[in-house]
C-alpha cells in the first residue's frame, strides 16, 4: 500500500465517520424497514405521507421493472387516465437510481435506499477531494473542502428528506476535474469522461444541470478556448478531442430535448406562477440558520466570514502564495458564486433591493420560470464555494509554511481542527424515520391488474405531497393508478381531478360512474387508516352503500371497491349508510361530534369576522352521531346568503323542519331543537334555491355561508 492510497483511505474513513455520526441511532437502527422523511425530529412514525415516498419510488423502480421484464425506467404506474399513454419521467435519477436498483437485488429496496444515503457522503467527499487536490495540489485543503461539501446542511437536509441533490452533488465537481485533466494531459479518455459526467448530471437531475450549464459555462468556454489556441498541441489531436465533446453535447441535447418535450405536455408547459416563488424562496435570515428546510438552506457557517475577510483584504490576488491556475479559478468562481448565491434568494432579493433582478431573470432567461424553489441554485453555489474554500486554505497553508510556526505538525493539527469545527458546526441532524408497510392484503388482492385503479382521498394538486404515498403501493403491487406525484404531471390532470374529486366526499353519481367506466377504471381503494391520507369511516360507509360499487375486501382500514358494470339495487338513505357504518366497524371518536357529510368547502377563517364554511351546490348535509353519555337538545349556527331571494329549507332525519328566507346579505341565527329519539344520529340537510360562481380566480360553485355549529 503506497502513501497515495493511504490518503484516499483516510478520506473515505473520514466520510464514513461523518455519515454514521450525522445519521444517528434512529436512522441506523431502522434502516431495514424505514426510510428518512425529515432531517430533524428524531422519531419514528408509520407511513407518514410526504415527498420521501416519491423518492423511494424512483430509487426502487429499476429493480421492480427488471423483475417484471419492463424497461428499467418504466413509470406507467401513476397518472393513468384517458388515453395519454404511459407516464414517464425519463431516466430519472440515473445513475444513482440504477445503482440503488442493483443493490436492492441483494439488500431489498428499503435497505438499498438507506445505504445510498450513507454512501453519498463518500461519493460527494471524494469528488470534492479530487477536484480541489487537482487545483491546489494540497491534500490538507482538499480534505477540508471535501468535509465542507459533504457535511453542508443544504446537502444533508435533502439527503434525509428527498434524496435529490443530497447525492447528486457528487457529480458536479467531475466535469471541472475532467476538464483540467483533459487540458493537462490531452488524453482522449478525460474528454470522454467529461462528456459522460455531464450526461450523468443531466439524467440525475435535469434542473441542477440547467443551473450548472447556465452559471458555470463561462469557465468551460474559457478553458477550451485556451486549449484550442494552444499551439504546442497537434491540430489533429485537438480536433479529435473537441469532436468527442461536440458528440457529447449532441447526446446530452437530445436527452434534454426529450425532457423538454415531456415538460411541454405537463403542467410545467407555461412555467411557474411568479407569485408562488415568494413562498418557497429563502430570506436573508436563512444565511444564519443551520436548518431552514430543504429549499431554503443557505447556511455555510463561519467559512462565509473567512471568505469575506479574504475578499476584502485583497490578498487572494497575490501571486506570492497562489499559483496562476488557482488565481484563474478565483477570478472565475468568485463572481459566479456571488451571482448564484444572490439568485438563490429569488424574488426576495428584488424585495430587499428594489432592483427587480430576479424578475428579469425569471421573465427573460429561457426555462428560468420552470422552478419555484430558487434555493436549489445553492447546489451550484456550494460547488463554487467548495473550490474557493480549498484555495483559501491553500493560501493559508503557503503563508504559514513561510513562518516560524508553520511546521508540518502544526499545519496538520490545524487541518484536523478546521475539519472538526466544520463537522460540529454543520451537525443539526436528528432524522425522522417512517416505517414502510410490509404487506397490504387489500392491494395484494388486485396485484398486477392492468385495470385502472383510483385510491382516495387524492388531492386536487397533482404534485401535492399527500399523493406520494400511493406511489409506493402502485410500484410494489404493479398497479395502474390514477394517483401520482411528480412536477411533470400531465396537464390533463387538472381537467380530470375536479370530475373525480367528489368521490373523496363519498359522492359517486351516475355521471361519475359513466366517466370512470369510460376511462377504464375498475377499482377504488378507500383509505380509512389511522394515518393520512385518509377519509372518514362515514365516507367509507357511504361509498360501500353506493349502488355502483361493491365491497370486495377490507383490512386494517383499507377497503377495495369494485366499480360495477350494472348498478345493484340499493336503498341510499342515511339510515342505510349508517347501517353500513356499523357493519364495517364504527369509531368511538366519531360520536359526540359534528361531521360535515356532503357538499361542504373547507373552513375559512379571517380577521374580524366569524369562521364559516361555504356550502357546495344547492344541497348540503351534516350529521351528529349521538354520544349517549352527552345528551343534547339543540344545534345552533348562523347562515348568510349573498344572493337576494335565497330560501333555506332544513330537514332533520329526512323530515321537514323549517323553511325561511335568508337572502338579504345578513347573518341569520338558526336554532334546531332536537327531541329525544331512538336513532343514534341527527342527520341535518340544508337546501337552498340558488347558487353562484364568484368568477375570476375562484371557480367554485357557492351556496351559503354557515358558521361553526354549536351543540347544546
From TrEMBL:
Protein keywords: Membrane, Transmembrane, Transmembrane helix
Transmembrane segments: 7-28, 84-103, 110-132, 158-178, 190-205, 211-228, 240-260, 298-316, 328-349, 377-397, 409-429
Domain of life: Bacteria
Stated name of the protein: YfhO family protein
Species of origin: Paenibacillus radicis (ex Xue et al. 2023)
Amino acid at each position: 500500500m503506497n502513501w497515495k492510497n493511504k490518503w484516499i483511505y483516510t478520506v473515505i474513513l473520514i466520510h464514513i465517520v461523518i455519515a454514521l455520526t450525522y445519521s444517528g441511532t434512529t436512522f441506523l437502527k431502522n434502516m431495514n424497514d424505514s426510510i428518512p422523511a425529515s432531517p430533524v425530529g428524531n422519531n419514528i412514525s408509520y407511513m407518514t405521507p410526504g415527498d420521501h415516498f416519491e423518492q423511494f419510488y424512483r430509487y426502487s423502480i429499476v429493480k421492480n421493472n427488471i423483475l417484471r421484464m419492463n424497461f428499467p425506467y418504466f413509470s406507467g404506474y401513476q397518472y393513468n387516465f384517458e388515453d395519454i399513454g404511459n407516464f414517464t419521467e425519463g431516466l430519472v435519477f440515473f445513475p444513482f437510481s440504477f445503482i440503488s436498483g442493483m443493490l436492492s437485488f441483494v439488500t431489498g429496496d428499503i435497505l438499498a435506499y438507506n445505504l445510498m444515503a450513507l454512501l453519498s457522503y463518500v461519493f460527494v467527499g471524494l469528488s470534492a477531494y479530487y477536484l480541489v487536490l487537482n487545483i491546489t495540489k494540497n491534500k490538507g485543503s482538499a480534505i477540508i473542502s471535501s468535509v465542507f461539501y459533504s457535511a453542508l446542511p443544504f446537502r444533508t437536509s435533502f439527503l434525509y428528506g428527498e434524496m435529490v441533490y443530497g447525492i447528486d452533488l457528487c457529480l458536479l465537481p467531475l466535469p471541472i476535474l475532467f476538464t483540467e485533466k483533459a487540458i493537462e494531459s490531452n488524453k482522449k479518455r478525460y474528454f470522454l469522461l467529461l462528456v459522460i459526467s455531464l450526461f450523468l448530471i443531466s439524467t440525475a437531475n435535469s434542473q441542477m444541470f440547467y443551473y450548472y450549464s447556465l452559471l458555470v459555462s463561462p469557465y468551460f468556454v474559457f478553458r477550451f478556448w485556451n486549449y484550442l489556441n494552444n499551439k504546442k498541441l497537434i491540430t489533429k489531436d485537438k480536433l479529435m478531442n473537441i469532436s468527442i465533446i461536440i458528440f457529447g453535447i449532441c447526446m446530452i441535447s437530445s436527452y434534454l430535448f426529450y425532457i423538454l418535450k415531456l415538460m411541454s405536455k405537463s403542467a410545467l408547459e407555461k412555467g411557474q406562477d411568479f407569485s408562488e416563488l415568494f413562498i418557497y424562496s429563502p430570506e436573508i435570515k436563512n444565511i444564519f440558520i443551520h436548518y431552514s428546510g430543504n429549499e431554503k438552506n443557505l447556511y455555510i457557517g463561519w467559512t462565509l466570514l473567512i471568505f469575506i475577510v479574504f475578499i476584502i483584504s485583497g490578498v487572494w490576488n497575490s501571486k506570492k502564495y497562489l499559483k496562476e491556475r488557482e488565481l484563474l479559478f478565483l477570478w472565475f468562481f468568485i463572481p459566479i458564486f456571488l451571482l448564484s448565491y444572490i439568485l438563490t434568494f429569488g424574488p426576495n432579493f428584488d424585495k430587499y433591493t428594489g432592483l427587480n433582478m430576479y424578475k428579469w431573470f425569471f421573465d427573460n432567461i429561457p426555462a428560468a420560470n420552470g422552478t419555484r424553489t430558487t434555493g436549489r441554485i445553492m447546489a451550484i453555489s456550494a460547488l463554487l464555494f467548495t473550490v474557493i474554500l480549498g484555495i483559501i486554505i491553500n493560501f493559508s497553508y503557503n503563508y504559514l509554511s513561510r513562518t516560524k510556526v508553520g511546521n508540518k505538525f502544526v499545519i496538520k493539527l490545524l487541518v484536523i481542527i478546521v475539519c472538526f469545527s466544520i463537522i460540529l458546526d454543520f451537525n443539526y441532524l436528528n432524522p425522522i424515520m417512517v416505517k414502510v408497510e410490509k404487506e397490504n392484503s387489500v392491494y395484494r388482492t388486485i396485484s398486477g391488474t392492468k385495470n385502472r385503479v383510483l385510491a382516495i382521498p387524492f388531492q386536487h394538486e397533482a404534485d401535492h405531497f399527500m399523493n406520494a404515498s400511493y406511489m409506493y403501493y402502485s410500484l410494489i403491487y404493479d398497479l395502474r393508478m390514477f394517483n401520482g406525484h411528480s412536477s411533470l404531471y400531465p396537464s390533463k390532470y387538472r381537467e380530470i381531478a375536479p370530475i373525480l374529486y367528489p368521490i373523496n366526499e363519498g359522492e359517486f353519481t351516475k355521471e361519475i360512474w359513466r366517466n370512470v367506466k369510460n376511462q377504464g377504471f375498475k377499482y377504488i381503494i378507500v383509505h380509512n387508516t389511522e394515518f393520512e391520507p385518509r377519509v372518514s369511516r362515514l365516507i367509507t360507509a357511504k361509498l360501500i352503500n353506493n349502488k355502483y360499487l361493491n365491497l370486495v375486501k377490507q383490512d386494517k382500514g383499507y377497503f377495495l371497491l369494485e366499480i360495477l358494470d350494472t348498478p345493484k339495487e340499493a336503498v341510499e338513505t342515511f339510515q342505510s349508510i349508517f347501517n353500513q357504518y356499523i357493519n364495517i366497524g364504527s369509531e368511538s371518536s366519531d360520536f359526540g361530534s359534528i361531521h360535515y357529510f356532503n357538499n361542504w368547502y373547507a373552513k375559512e377563517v379571517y380577521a374580524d369576522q366569524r369562521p364559516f364554511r361555504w356550502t357546495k351546490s344547492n344541497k348540503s348535509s351534516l350529521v351528529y352521531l349521538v354520544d349517549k353519555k352527552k345528551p343534547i337538545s339543540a344545534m345552533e349556527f348562523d347562515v348568510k346568503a349573498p344572493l337576494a331571494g335565497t330560501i333555506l329549507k332544513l330537514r332533520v332525519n329526512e323530515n321537514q323542519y323549517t323553511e325561511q328566507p335568508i337572502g338579504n346579505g345578513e347573518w341569520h341565527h338558526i336554532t334546531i331543537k332536537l327531541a329525544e329519539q331512538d336513532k343514534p344520529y341527527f342527520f341535518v340537510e340544508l337546501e337552498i334555491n340558488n347558487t353562484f360562481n364568484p368568477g375570476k380566480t375562484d371557480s367554485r360553485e357557492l351556496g351559503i355561508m354557515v358558521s361553526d355549529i354549536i351543540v347544546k
